[in-house]
Specification:
Radius of gyration: 21 Å
Subcellular location: Membrane
Helix content: 55-70%
Organism: Thermobaculum terrenum (strain ATCC BAA-798 / CCMEE 7001 / YNP1)
Strand content: under 5%
Pfam family, one: DoxX
Main location: membrane
Distance between the termini: 24 Å
Number of helices: 11
Mean pLDDT: 85
Keywords: Membrane, Transmembrane, Transmembrane helix
Largest sheet: none
Shape: globular
């Protein structure tokens, strides 16, 4: 039985890595468009199938609801992503993939004079001006309230925001790759992706945001194969979270 579970785990890891590589290829510049679309579809199918297989084999622990909880019954896949030990197998390639995207993007910005050098803020001003040009029409790409935020707060402080974006991307990338406060890193990354989308920039932002939501749901196992395995138990008392009353041996808490 133990060997079959280990084989399942390693098989799922291989499938998840292949899925991550396919997602990476789908976002490459200059990649054949047809092949990129096929890679995206196959990669998503692999991740969904791997999640289904692992969640089917998952046996959740017994969590007693408190009087403050609404009556509910959580889906098995949701419990699996939140607590399942083997969910770390699925979430590791997603975490590394997102970390690479953020780190490479941020590193380019940090080494660009238009972002953090002698002309810091120039690139961001150009981005904001492009976003403000998308506010016209009956159904504008950029909503009026966000245009106000860009015009009144970001543009006057473009240099500050330029450094925040560049170094924020680098730090999020490093945190995701190393598995340091994975849930927080995914939340910050998702916040940046959401802002790029609100500014009318699509690109890889929707896919990254969707994957970050998966990491946020599964923040416990997402960092299990990373430094969070040692960090989270030591900082858990800071927010007053105790241990669950009944946890299975192969669950992450």
């Amino acid at each position: 039985m133990r060997d079959s579970k280990q084989n399942l785990m390693w098989g799922a890891l291989v499938a998840a890595i292949i899925g991550g590589l396919l997602l990476y290829y789908s976002g490459l510049r200059g990649a054949d468009q047809g092949l990129a679309f096929a890679a995206l579809v196959v990669g998503l199918i692999l991740f969904i199938a791997t999640t289904w297989v692992l969640a089917s084999a998952y046996k959740p622990g017994d969590y007693t609801p408190s009087p403050d909880d609404l009556p509910h019954r959580e889906w098995r896949w949701y419990q699996f992503l939140r607590h399942g030990y083997n969910a770390a197998v699925l979430l590791l390639p997603i975490r590394i993939y997102l970390g690479y995207l953020w780190l490479s993007s941020g590193w380019d910005k940090v080494n660009s004079p238009a972002w953090t050098g002698s002309q810091a803020g120039a690139a961001l001003r150009g981005f904001v001006q492009g976003a403000l040009a998308k506010t016209s029409g009956e159904h504008p790409d950029v909503q009026g309230w966000y245009a106000w935020f860009l015009r009144e707060l970001v543009l006057p402080n473009a240099t500050l925001f330029s450094y925040l974006v560049a170094w924020g991307e680098v730090l999020v990338g490093i945190a995701l790759i190393l598995g340091v406060l994975t849930g927080v890193a995914a939340l910050v990354g998702g916040f940046m992706n959401a802002n790029f989308l609100l500014a009318g920039a699509v690109s890889t932002n929707p896919i990254m945001l969707a994957l970050e939501l998966v990491l946020i749901i599964g923040w416990r196992p997402a960092g299990w194969w990373g430094l969070d395995r040692w960090i989270i138990p030591r900082i858990r008392p800071l927010w007053g979270e105790g241990q669950p009353t009944s946890v299975r041996a192969r669950e992450v808490t």
